[in-house]
């Protein structure tokens, strides 16, 4: 019988690897409400040290939420469009560029503004990237 914590750690490591990120740049934010586990996968960009929502899954437990995230990475994620967002934090001079996989531009902006104050960032452009 596999220890559940070890299985959860293995799944988290597999997700970070598929994203091409170090585990220090991936946050697995679990919350439980009415018996449903919600997993917000958050990534941290090491260059500008900002975090963004990557994707959300819901399940009956942490392990299933992680398995659903892996399934998303293997299937649905590839079918989403990618967007380039140019932005600047209010008060900063440097313009940054971030990339989001999303269903549409509003979904990309929701991922950008996840857990942020709307008036703390200026969006200069959001562009749908051409399909390769």
- Helicity level: 25-40%
Largest sheet: 3 strands, antiparallel
Question: Span between N and C termini?
Answer: 44 Å
Mean pLDDT equals: 93
- Name the CATH class of the largest domain: Alpha Beta
Count all strands and give the number: 6
**What is the overall shape?**
globular
SSE sequence, one letter per element: HEEEHHEEHE
Write the CATH architecture name of the largest domain: 2-Layer Sandwich
Structural class: alpha+beta
The strand order across the widest sheet is 1-2-3
Low-confidence stretches: none
CATH topology of the largest domain: Double Stranded RNA Binding Domain
CATH superfamily descriptor of the largest domain: Ribosome hibernation promotion factor-like
Radius of gyration: 16 Å
Domains counted in the coordinates: how many? Answer: 2
Q: Strand percentage, roughly?
A: 35-45%
SS field, number of helical segments: 4
């Amino acid at each position: 019988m596999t220890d559940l914590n070890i299985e959860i750690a293995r799944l988290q490591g597999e997700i970070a690897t598929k994203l091409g990120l170090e585990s220090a740049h991936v946050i697995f934010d679990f919350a439980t409400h009415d018996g449903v586990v919600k997993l917000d996968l958050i990534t941290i960009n090491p260059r500008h040290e900002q975090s963004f929502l990557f994707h959300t899954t819901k399940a009956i437990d942490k392990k299933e939420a992680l398995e659903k995230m892996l399934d998303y990475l293997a299937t649905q994620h590839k079918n989403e469009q990618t967007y380039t967002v140019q932005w600047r934090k209010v008060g900063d001079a440097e313009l940054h560029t971030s990339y989001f996989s999303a269903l549409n531009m509003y979904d990309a902006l929701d991922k950008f503004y996840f857990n942020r104050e709307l008036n703390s960032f200026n969006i200069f452009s959001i562009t749908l990237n051409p399909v390769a």
